[in-house]
Request: fold
Amino acid sequence: MRPATVPCVKAAARLCFQTGFSKEWRWLASPGRASFRQAQRHFNVSRCVTAKRPPPRSPKETVEIPGLGVITYGERMHYVPGLAKPVYPLWERAYKDPRFYQALPAHEMRLYKEKPCYVFHQRTSPLEGLRQALWLTKTKMISSLPPQLLSLAESAANQIPDLDERVQKAIKHARFWDTTEERPGKAKYCNALLLNLLHLCATLQTTHSAIGRRMLAERYSLSASWKRGDDLFQIRGQNGFLQNCMDPLPEISGKQEVKDTADHVLENLYPVCPTISLQKVHLYKEEVNCSGFTGDCPYPHAHTLYFLEGADPHWTLRPEQFRTKMVMFAFGNALARAHTLYGNQPQCVLDRPITVQAVGTNGRLFQFMVFQLNTTDLSGDDGIKNQVWLESDVELYDFAKVRPFIKKKQVKVPAGLAGYKPETFSRFMGLYLHGAA
Amino acid sequence: MMALSVLATALRSLTLAQTPLLSSQAVAQIKMGTVLPRTVPQCRGFLTSAFLEQNSTLWKQTEKYTVRPIGMKKTGGRDHTGRIRTHGIGGGHKQRHRMIDFQRLRYEEGKEGKPFEEKVVKVRYDPCRSADIALIAGGYRKRWIIATEKMQMGDIVKTSAVIGRMAVAANEGDSYPLGALSVGTLVNNLEIQPGKGAAYIRAAGTSGVLLRKTNRAVIVQLPSKQQVEVLETCMVTVGRVSNIDHNKRSIGKAGRNRWLGKRPSSGLWQRKGGRFGRKIKPLPPMKSYVNLPSIASI
Reply:
């Protein structure tokens, strides 16, 4: 029965109860019942209430002969064997009721377009992973961080007193102390660890004043669109934390290196199409371009994106797909900025390439990435490519165990933090200080 | 008298209600998302019984293909009346159904008629059958198929409907029409009628043999040594089905049978009839699924 009619039936049943109806009505009318699904487990209720529905019959085909009048039993107000079933016009509600909204079919909607658009959002899990992202964004990948960032990391390591101790305390706080239960959940400790590390980096504001010209934003919605070959692509969604800055990041590779990327050949994904796993939509707005903030935001330049693996508890991405998400959203932020600065027309070479950094973590492993957007002309496979420097699976520590791991009465891994590696945090700080030093 | 008036009030309130009272079938259809004709019932019946939704078979009535596994409802050998129709079924580990695409020759939109290749993404165990299944991806879509013996992750499998004059040197896992293969090839996932989807030779380790090719028809020997004659345009996959050691496994204990969903048989002594015991019979005549026009119809 429809839930809306249950109160009517219950009311009727309650009334009938006083006249001494059978106990089935009593059972239906009582308000404490969980649902009709529990019926068969109550042995005092007879079979008529708990009957299994018969298998659904396919509807009979009605033959329409034009010009032939049909005699129906509609006027007689009851079924008469031999007469046809009356067909009534569809009833439309005269007013708008939001509880009973019937959506139009897709091709009648205002935003319908014949040509489909492929959308990448925060839950997309691309089949081919990083290779697919590199093809979609026309990017060349380099498997280590650029040398200037590595040197910045090493020099930054000595600037905070008791750095190692403070980082280890931050990890212990996130992994052990920030809960009333035995151990905090992944979403909680990822979040807490990231905010603690950011706070540590921010204490350098006394020596690097440019850190004060930044802002951390949480739930902002990005959208950007581009064309690749014959297909339209869009990237949309909320992706993570964003650190905005008043000043743009300096470019990593010079003009000569950018020109040399034209010789790089993108990897072919045959027999798989690069649009696999992307959501195909026919209802979309063309040329969407929004960095997530209004035009007069005082911090227009995206500095670093922070991605947490535990952010969406119902949707986990594999490590390869997580790195793909980082690349795509860094590209999306850079593209949105490029469209705002240089317009929506594809530019072969940008005068000032736009650099965006990204850090992804699952609480222990860190992925560091720097993306440089050199061109917005993404329709062909040749020409100048964008560049990404990716360092993946860098460990911050080996184990953070609440209880010691004991095997055959020997402690293999002690409780607490074990195997801390200071280089990872120095790289984190290097990415943070890039542009402020 | 009072009961009648109460019933009449209830009926009146129901017909005046915003939502018309619909039958259970319609409720189920609404839940599936199909649009119903919104007819105002002039004199519809008054539902006095509720049905148990636990036994509904709606989970297997989706038309849209999806790669994600679907939750299954176990029947326990019971039919729609609730009584046992098949003994010995019940319990067992929970299983999720993965929709297998038995029609190997399914073109993408806009690419009809051209042979295509697909890449094997992964080969995994399927709780619903004895064979392993493979996730293949090609073009814009992914689908599950029955894996063949040596199929590995990263292989490229080809599907083609072209019948050339020369027989094709087929690799394992590829799918061709029967007319394009040479005599003596081991085949599986046999289609009886072209376009219907594979119905034969799908179990673990099985394979059929292409015996003879004639003008329009091809004779294939099934694993039961039965021979069938089918049209040469029927699609078939080359090779043996995966999980070839399936028949050599030992159940080991009664509990393992229970995990597979098999309940113990009756322990009572049953009078054996004519169907028991080993029989040695000649092979049945060849079954032909080729509808050639008879001379009388011309």
